[in-house]
Amino acid sequence: MHLVTPESMREMDRRTIEAIGVPAEVLMERAARGALDVLLTHFRPSPGARIGVLCGMGNNGGDGVALATMLDHLGYHPVLVLMGTPERFGPEAQRFHKVAENLIGDRHQLNGLDAAGVRHALSSLPPCQLWCDALLGTGLDRPVEGRFASAVKFLNEQPAPVFALDTPSGLDGRTGQVLGICTQAEVTATFGFPKIGQLLDPARGFIGMLCPIDIGIPARVRDAVGVEAFALDADWLKGKIPARPTHAHKGSVGKVALIGGRAPTTGALTMAARGALLGGAGLIFPGTDPQGALSARTIAELMPRPIFGDAGELHADALSQLLDKSDTLVIGPGLGTDQAARQALRHCLTATPRPTVIDADALTLLAQNRDLFQAACDLAACVPVVLTPHPGELARLLDRSVDEVLSDTVAATRELLARISAVIVHKSAATVVAASDSPLGLNRTGNPGMATGGMGDVLSGLIAASLNDHPDNPWQAAAIAVCVHGLAGDAARKKVGTRATTPGALLDELGGVWRRFEA
Ligand SMILES: NC(=O)C1=CN([C@@H]2O[C@H](COP(=O)(O)OP(=O)(O)OC[C@H]3O[C@@H](n4cnc5c(N)ncnc54)[C@H](O)[C@@H]3O)[C@@H](O)[C@H]2O)[C@H](O)CC1
Ligand SMILES: [K+]
Q1: Is the ipTM of this complex over 0.90?
Q2: Ligand 1 neighbour 486 (Cβ under 6 A)
Q3: What distance separates the 2 farthest-apart alpha carbons in the chain?
Q4: Which of 103, 260, 283, 457 could bridge across to 272 with cysteines, CB 3.0–4.6 Å?
Q5: Are residues 198 and 177 located together in one domain of the fold?
């Protein structure tokens, strides 16, 4: 699924009309017809049902007017409400409104009314079985206040469900933030391509089911304007898991070293190592302290090496030997942030370069130590490096507040990308995967059951294994791992429920996910 910013969508719309010659009202009609199909399939209104259509005065409102005429044609009872006078519509919307004037008796105009007046007028209407929100679309350019806020509140207070045209009114399609107030939709029919923000939070909570409508934007227009992102989901994953060569052996499919797991957070590294193991790596060497090694030994396939002593000190020679054995490195889960941890990270970043996943405590150390961050930048200049921050870690790396990071997750991810030429996996309920030479990946797999400690550790191991499978495309390696991780989480939730979706339950489902997608 291609994803775009509202600006790009508007540009594609403009070029389709001006350069290709598709009349604007044809696009509007396709949008409305697509929305009609979604409405009928999803809501199954009863014959003759009253269906409210609340329209702003831009083209989103025009889509609403066109939809109302189609509902009338099918024998339903549209209740068409305009926020202003039809003269304020653009030419296409005016044309559909002329038709509506001749067909639809139940028409209302709220021009000249303040917020209280809008509320009173809407509350006086007899109840509808369904409300269509055609107030504001991609033209949203300021917070929703006053009379529009009143209209949004009215929709949100109705017992009837809300069907959003293009987007719930009030959502910023670029960032996914609510500007002022926003309608709570059960279903959203989005026109052209889904907007990036629609896959992010908090937008996802307002959109309900997202149904993209093909309005006939030609591929050449799409490619000339450019899509900014892809949704990472089962469709995207198809065909991307390569077959393993018949002559594969344990030394040829990835030797992964993992550094961390020091007492008392020994389990973190074992989780990461299990991720690497079930991600398909051939040999797995956790480098840890004596207690961490005990934890790792609970999994027979792992080969832990003590690289820290009983007093927590780093044994640099042991670390060097471990690195020499490995193709790929994960550093951070359960590493700690003390002096020995710093030494270990510096050692790893300045040793012979190998693809490296930097996670958890190692990210905190990068944020605290300018020289270590510089070493990571130098490493990233010669081999694939993947950074996997959650919003708190990203905030530390950018020296910003977590709220600032959350207010525009994509921009924050890109800000880090401008400082280090790595793959950034910004982990959240809607994980963003970014690299400077690739589009964004926005993950659509996974579920709230995955809000459990250890999930991120499993992911870092999976990414390391995936880097061995896709050595020339680290963005794709990381995106595949993120997508597979979420699919396994979804399979786990199906089996054990949301609350029991532990990292262990997720790991148990990885096999099923690979079986579905492996070539
Ligand atoms: N994607 C496509 O190719 C197509 C999209 N269509 C629909 O058109 C809208 C975008 O239309 P546009 O006229 O540009 O914008 P809006 O309808 O969203 O609204 C513009 C209108 O609203 C005012 N406004 C902006 N913010 C606010 C606010 N917070 N409060 C009040 N008023 C606000 C602004 O000043 C303008 O006057 C797109 O979403 C699709 O639904 C086409 O129909 C088909 C092709
Ligand atoms: K809308």
Answers
A1: yes
A2: no
A3: 86
A4: 457
A5: yes
